[in-house]
Amino acid sequence: MTEIRALNAYIKLVRASELVFGRIGQNLRAEGGLTLSQFGVLEALWHLGPLCQRDLGLKILKSSGNMTMVVDNLEKRELVDRRQNAEDRRVTEFHLMAKGRALIKEIFPRHAAQITEELGRLTAAEQKQLGALCRKLGLAD
């Protein structure tokens, strides 16, 4: 019984997240030609400033190998660039370029509105409860 309940909850969690991510990802592709990972990089650099690859990967929950491909594609579009850290030349930081800043500033408000709409299917109390439950799952050892 415990296993069945856990599996059912897991399936519902994965299905719901995949459907929401799919709808959001579809809009990002249509509006900015971006994947969710690429958007995550632009958003992180916009809000946090320059970051090294390790910190950027931790921020958007992507592996180092995946981050290389994501940033390479953003760099080809001249949305981000790589620069050596002035204090430690062994560290490469990623910076938002003017074109990337303009793109994220343009699409972020619509992205936030879509997330608000998606989660608007839940009441305010349900959104808080969902947030607390996800945090509890995410912090598990």
Main sheet attributes: strand count, strand direction, barrel closure: 3 strands, antiparallel
Distance between the termini: 23 Å
Helices and strands: which structural class? mainly alpha
Q: Segments where pLDDT lies below 50 for 5+ residues? A: none
Count every helix, treating DSSP H or I runs of 4 or more residues as helices: 6
Question: What would CATH call the homologous superfamily?
Answer: Winged helix-like DNA-binding domain superfamily/Winged helix DNA-binding domain
CATH topology: Arc Repressor Mutant, subunit A
Task: Describe the model.
α1 (2-32) packs across α5 (98-119), α2 (36-48) packs across α5 and α3 (53-60) packs across α4. The model has no long low-confidence stretch (mean pLDDT 91). The chain has helices at residues 2-32, 36-48, 53-60, 64-76, 98-119, 124-138, and strands at residues 51-52, 80-84, 92-96. Strands 1-3-2 form a three-stranded antiparallel sheet. It has six helices and three strands. The longest helix has 31 residues, at 2-32. The relative contact order is 0.11. Helix content is 72%, strand content 9%. β2 and β3 (92-96) form a beta hairpin. By secondary structure, it is mainly alpha-helical. It has one domain: Winged helix-like DNA-binding domain superfamily/Winged helix DNA-binding domain (Arc Repressor Mutant, subunit A, Orthogonal Bundle). The radius of gyration is 18 Å and the shape is globular.
